[in-house]
Amino acid sequence: MSAKLPLWERAVTYATVGATQSSDLLAKPPAGYRPFRQRTRIGHGDARWDYAWNEVMSWGIQRNSGFHIDVADVPAAVSDQTYVPVAFDEAGAPVATALATDEIVFGPDGDPFIVPGDSVLLGIPFGPFHVTAPAR
Whole-prediction pTM value? Predict the structure, then answer.
């Protein structure tokens, strides 16, 4: 039934924003999830760092992992109400709502960066099958 709802109205199976910052997340993951942690050197220097964060901000990790990315055209009213970034003090405590902007920022390859409220349908090729999964 949820597949007929617009992507941004479908339920998700993960916790709220910030839940992954829990110190015991890997020891006590949510039901149905298995923790995985791996460190890998991706290079060094400013050029490598710029490449890495640009990929993170433009669905590049998923795309380079073989997923097909279909970004949903979410109405502005949905994006505006989905998530409001928070500013933090030096100790890491939330202090105020961060300033939001309507400006669309693009990476060097022309892909728009992810913004709060973005929803995508990930296409996962699995042999002759194609499985889809919503993500925000």
Answer: 0.61
